[in-house]
Design brief:
The structure is a single chain. Helices cover about 50% and strands about 10% of the residues. The protein has helices at about 25-45, 60-65, 95-100, 105-115, 120-125, 135-150, 155-165, 170-185, 190-200, and strands at about 1-5, 50-55, 55-60, 70-75, 80, 115-120, 130. It is globular, with a radius of gyration of 19 Å. The protein has 2 domains: about 1-150, Alpha-Beta Complex (2-enoyl-CoA Hydratase, Chain A, domain 1); about 155-200, Lyase 2-enoyl-coa Hydratase, Chain  A, domain 2, CATH 1.10.12. It has about 210 residues and is an alpha/beta fold. Helix 1 (about 25-45) links the parallel strand 1 and strand 2.
């Protein structure tokens, strides 16, 4: 598993706005493509990914966090996509990922208004999965990562099925899911997990990750 963090003070406050006055259309397009390639690289990692958010996660900073599987945040953190206040819009996948994670109506509210939200509102919108003391966020993310790292090989197959489905129709996506489902039955963890369930009940297997 992978933990993404910006440190104790802030996760990431977004792009360097001072470069924007030099942008024409081509520069903006190149910038967006480069940023999206980075976010897609995070999203496509086979490992489970977790963002540990302290302080600000704004603009591109939040867009990077949205590319991870999970986000946990400090109680005093601030999240938002304020690009509309600059007369532009999110260019690093924010319009798409926020809509999928928080729902279209909530995404429209946050993107159209450019307003920032507290950790409590982010939790209510499912943007983050838990809130922690600022001093504990990274440790909580690492503990979460360790739990997933001890999981079965089918975790990565499940992630591959979910992420692949983002870019496909439902019919195409469920076919990918079926392939990954079948792949899981070729793993040692599946044999171990099924046997453990039948003999000892659910949640007792000690997976080896293969």
């Amino acid at each position: 598993a992978v933990v993404l963090t910006g440190g104790r003070r802030h996760f990431a406050a977004g792009a360097d706005i001072e470069q924007f006055p030099e942008f024409g259309r081509e520069e903006a397009l190149s910038f967006s493509h480069r940023f999206n390639n980075a976010a897609l690289a995070i999203e496509d990692l086979p490992q489970i990914t977790i963002s540990a958010i302290n302080g600000f996660a704004l603009g591109g900073g939040l867009e990077l966090a949205l590319a991870t599987d999970f986000r946990i945040a400090a109680s005093d953190s601030t999240l938002g996509l304020p690009e509309i206040l600059l007369g532009i819009l999110p260019g690093g996948g924010g319009t798409q990922r926020l809509s999928r994670i928080a729902g279209v109506t909530a995404a429209k509210d946050l993107i159209y208004s450019g307003r920032s939200i507290t950790a409590e509102e982010a939790l209510a919108l499912n943007i983050i999965s838990s809130i922690h003391d600022p001093d504990d966020v990274y440790a909580e993310a690492v503990a979460m990562a360790e739990r997933y790292a001890r999981g079965p090989a089918s975790l990565q197959l499940a992630k591959a099925a979910i992420v692949s489905g983002y870019h496909l129709t439902v019919d195409e996506a469920v076919r990918i899911e079926a392939e990954r489902f079948a792949d899981a039955f070729t793993t040692a963890d599946a044999e171990l997990g099924v046997r453990s369930f039948l003999e000892h009940g659910p949640g007792k297997a000690d997976f080896g990750g293969s």
